[in-house]
Amino acid sequence: MKRLIVLLALAMIFSVSQNVTAQDFKFGHIDSDQLFSIMPERDTIIAQMQELRTELQNTLEIMQVEYNNKFNDYTNEADKLSDLVRQTKEEELVGLQQRITNFQQNADQQLQDKQMQLMQPVIQKFEKAIKDVAKENGFTYIFDISRGSIIYFDETKSEDIMEKVKVKLGIQ
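^ that's the sequence the OP posted. Answer follows.
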């Protein structure tokens, strides 16, 4: 019987200590996509990405026109060509198509790399501001609601820190 009373007492103490500890947490949230959309660097990043995208697209179009011209020439005179010349032109067309495919893949990779290169300093800047705001205001957790992994949060128990982070970053 004593043992049961001791176990019940320990369970109550543990339960009470958990409630006290849980009440010490301070939760905050922010929408990092919204924060990025108001960052001053955003317009520069978009302009640089568009410039690179346009350059790559123009090059791809030139390559595609070259391929189409050679393909049209080949189809117009294929019946008149000797086997060796036909085979050579077919190999040239296959080579051009492969170059176009490789260019597209490399262009996609280059766009991704450039975006990461441009975005990384901005991400680091606003993550630092978020961490600074969290430390200065005693937050235990800050949730990024734009990432989609949070199914529910009670806005009355979680503070939106967007304004504090904007002040920290000097954004109006």
